[in-house]
Amino acid sequence: MAVTIYGIKNCDTMKKARSWLEEHDVAYAFHDYKALGIDRAHLEAWIDQAGLDTVLNRAGTTFRKLPDAERENLTREKAVALMLDQPSMIKRPVLEAGGKLLIGFKPEIYAATFGG
């Protein structure tokens, strides 16, 4: 099963998720969307599958620092544009594995997906 984990290298939650994968011998590719960016197709697919509120990290510092005008009346298109411009607004980690999409890190969900 091809596994790709998307996120930011120095994020604590990312470190926990990557450590879990390594401890359970799950091979994965890491895509740092702060360094490499993320394309609209991925964001759109994630939102279609998981919902905008799951993908957009409203609790993060980057989102909270936005001017009120940018945070209010947030449409899908506006949110996608913000996340493309500032990928740290995407909840982390995003893990694609064999057609499954996991957003955020919960050891029990990873265990149910990969065994262990």
Keywords, please?
alpha+beta, 7 helices, 4 strands
What's the short story on this structure?
The protein has 116 residues and is of the alpha+beta class.
Radius of gyration: 14 Å
List the helices and strands in order. EHEHHHHHEEH
| Strand count | 4
| Gross geometry | elongated
- Mean pLDDT level: 94
Q: Give a quick account of the main beta sheet: strands, pairing sense, barrel closure.
A: 4 strands, mixed
In whole angstroms, the N-to-C terminal distance is 16 Å
Report the sheet-strand fraction: 5-15%
Spatial strand sequence of the major β-sheet = 2-1-3-4
Structural class: alpha+beta
What is the number of helical segments per DSSP (H or I, 4+ residues)?
A: 7
Helix content: 40-55%
The residue ranges in which pLDDT falls below 50 over 5 or more consecutive positions are: none
Descriptive account of the structure:
The chain is an alpha+beta fold and 116 residues long. It has 7 helices and 4 strands, in the order βαβαααααββα. It has helices spanning 12-23, 40-50, 52-55, 61-64, 68-71, 76-85, 107-114, and strands at residues 3-7, 29-32, 94-97, 100-103. Strands 2-1-3-4 form a 4-stranded mixed β-sheet, covered by helices on one side. The chain starts with a strand and ends with a helix. The relative contact order is 0.23.
